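Ticket #4471: structure output looks truncated?

Reporter: J.K.
Steps to reproduce: submitted the chain below (633 residues) through the standard prediction queue, then opened the result file.
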Amino acid sequence: MTDPLECVMSDLTNALKRTFGFDDFRPGQEAVVQHVLAGRDVLALMPTGGGKSLCYQLPALLQPGVSLVVSPLIALMQDQVRQLRDNDIAATFINSSLEAAEIGRRVAALLRGDYKLVYLAPERLVLAEFLDALSRLSAGPGINAFVIDEAHCVSEWGHDFRPEYRQLSVLRRRHPRTPILAFTATATPRVRTDIMAQLALRDPAVHLTSFNRPNLFYRVRPKNKHSYDELLAQAREGGAGIVYCLSRRRVDELSAQLHADGIRVRSYHAGLDAATRRDNQEAFIRDDVQVIVATIAFGMGINKPDVRWVIHFDLPKSLESYYQESGRAGRDGDPARCILYFGVGDIRTSEFLIQQKVDPVSGEPLEAEQRIARQQLRQVLNYAESTDCRRAIQLRYFDEIFATPCGACDNCCEPRTAHDFTVETRQFLSCIARLAQRGERFGAGYLIEILRGARTERLMSRGHDSLSVYGIGKTHSVEEWRSLARSLLHQRLVEESQDGYSVLSLNESSWSVLRGERTVQVAKAAKTGRVKSPKLGAAVDAATMATGATDSETLFERLRGLRKRLADSQGLPPYVIFHDATLREMVARRPQTLAQFADIRGVGEGKLLRYGQQFIDTLREHSGALKESSREG
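Returned output as attached by the reporter:
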């Protein structure tokens, strides 16, 4: 007797290969798809590059009716739709970039049931007349799901809060039986709870895929007179890259400098008019330029998968922002580098920007916002100055525990010496405990003053010079104590309040140290020197296969050239045709027939018919030229 579950899974796998060209699901995708097809509300957190779009696109094709996808940015909608259309999927978008007549035509087609996926801005979806149209759509062709992409925008605690997303709760009230699917790449536990409440999700199937991006190598470098030379060297190594800066002025300066040094580069910031920003972004997406130097406004609306490196030339605003911005590298799963440059001047710049958070009417400081921003800055500084695993620090921010070493960050890959700091840790934790007994809590800076026996007025006036721990740590410098405090936070041996204040408190792990049940090891930072290339094991072998031999490199570039010509002729970015990883597989397997070409990952039925023969012809031509060259030799 045939197992029904096996039949369902076989149908899913066949549909996955037929439409998208993939033989199997990425981690976490299959479970999400099953819950969507079962009609459940869903909250899915999947890392950038984890394939969250497929989790609602595939079910949309397998169910009657249409999936309506809420997306925050016009460029993001257009990017998704052109990829779907290239896979022969009936999709469109409706947003403010269209003339009223065109919007009318697309709404009419939607009501006829001509589409399987329609992308909408939240402002469009909650318009009274559009909500009325949805009622007619629901009674006619049907709505199989409301998809809320970038769902963290719903929450005021999210890194990119959009007030208009709050209005989406109207969907549950007007369409109580239609599933709501919320997808995002990043959300803290607080944000997850807020998403479920704001969207009124009913008993949602919650999927938390690991936030880890194993193909990314993280490094922090000191910002000094050699930093630009390192940036230029990275650009000259090749590969598409993004450089993030805090100010427009810095963007323009770096862009001009790179251009003068022969790099194909464009700028992106709010000081440029909308047409220039659009043109520069498109040039980057279409591989007409190699590098974009940008403020943090760049990147949210694009899905360029083959960015090989992201450099922050200034400090990001928060760890969550850094995860998002650096995560624009390597979305295709191939190795990529993420480098953060950090100098003392960055702290002054960040502090200045925080001080600009004032009430637009009264001009008074927005103290709560400034407090939260300073806490986020401290977290970034702790990350930049830490000797602990970079990946573990980032993942811990999202409440994910990661077993170190990661093997793909500077702190894990470069020589460091671990030292026993158990005694100093007990002294530090004892200081917190003594103050807690008096009903007092303070930040690391004040604790260090006590431990070092400072004679400041505020310390003496509070009587803290009478504590038993006063002055017991004077043999260590302030920086040594600060390094220890950072490490204790990263190792979760102490807690920092989440209300923007920097006060510290003990947890159960703290007491295990104080009771003598565990020791504490802290690594001292390695001396800064020449940047070493990361060793990423098998991943690097895959990424550098095309450069391992002259023949493979030549063929890879020929296929890239063909892809670029096809893309340009259709007004598409090259990656919409095929990803680099698909081209590399062609280089490795050298298919000579359409049947063989169909087995390449990323080749679905539509792309096989549209592009297969042209790529096979190029592969055959290369093979023939190689044989001819071999005979002549």
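Triage note (M.O.): checked the attachment and the full token line is present. The chain has four domains: 4-208, 216-413, 417-524, 544-632.
Status: closed, working as intended.
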